Amino acid sequence: MAQETVDRIVNWLAKTDIPTVDLTGGAPELIPDFRYFIERVKALEPSRHVIDRCNLTILLERGYGDLPEFLATNKVEIIASMPCYSAKNVDAQRGEGVFDDSIAALQLLNSLGYGSDPELPLHLVYNPVGTFLPPLQDELEVDYKHELKEHFGIVFNKLYALTNLPIGRFASYLRHNGKLEEYIQLLIDAFNPATIGGLMCRNTISVGWRGEVYDCDFNQQLEMQWKNGTPIFLWDVDPESLENREIMTGDHCFGCTAGVGSSCGGAIV
Question: Domains along the chain?
Answer without folding.
Answer: 1-161 (3.20.20.70), 164-269 (no CATH)
